[in-house]
Amino acid sequence: MKKLTLLVLTLLIGFVLVACGSTPQEKFTKSVEKTSDPADQTTSTIGITIDELPATLKAQQSAAMLEGLSVKMTVANDQKAQKSAATIAVKTAGLVNIDATLDLLMDSKAEKIYLPLSDLYDDKGNLTTLLDQLTSGMFSQIKKENPDLATKYVELTGLADDLTNEKEQKEVTDTKAVEKATKDLSKKVTKIVSDYFSSLPEDRFKEGDNGEITVKLTKSDITKLANQLVKLADDKDVKADLKVIVTSQGVSENDFDEQYTATVKSIKDSIKDLESEKDAAITIDTTIKQGKDDAIENMKMKVKLTDTSDKENPEAMAFTITMKMTDSAKLPKFPSSSDVISAKELQKIIEEATAEYYKSMYGDALTDTDEIQ
Hints:
This is Lipoprotein. The chain is of the alpha+beta class.
């Protein structure tokens, strides 16, 4: 549990930093402050790569899949058009080889999310191979018999309703309220982070000839910053902003209220555990490069966790987080209504293709897909 605590806390602080003329320290702090006021059009690419796994995780078959894991997500966002597009690429080099890319198109105004089925027809990676392994080759057969699906988009917004035939009464999301809550929360988090960097000794910040600014964070930095951030939870306005954001994702207000106190306590306990763990160490080598108007253009965080409680078999885990941002967004063409099918329609196509597939293998004796295990 202590190792898990180290990882969770490091990721927490890492992603807070990602979301969120002078000395190197002042340049660094100014760039962090800029993250709370993004341009109307932005494209950001965030990546995480596992560089090293501890021996205990390598010995576990399920965890061994993480070896060589690389996840990269690029999001193009146009606030005025209220549209965004995300591309998620996953690769592994461990026990299971994965090389897959999926795209999502999001129309905030219409409250719709689309998945282009062309992703499933693209053989650049090994997604088809993986799905064939799960379906005994049936996936390739479905693609072959339904070539027209390659130009279609499936709407994911009502996925659960379509697949269960149950319709829940949903409240209309107040997008302006969510946007305001997100900006207010971002400003408060960014101020705490930038104030912390301003409080550090100036000589901890170095600027290279290429304009990159570096600072090394230690376990002490992480716990101090985490303690300051978690104090925000006691601010009623912060809790209200979080409630607006979380409930807009479908969580009920009652569930939010019940889980909020427990979650905050869990984070505080984790920070105490990390502070008292004498054999644990964390270092985060952070490098940023400024772009237009002093905003962060590139950032890299190399994270190293070590546990020396077992002196004969010390353990280490390392991963790298990267971010690149530009103040422009090139969105792909969004589908027209004739290009869109529902998840229920796609399910029907798959069921019919499955029945035909098993009929060709077993004849008329087995065509009810509900009986196929």
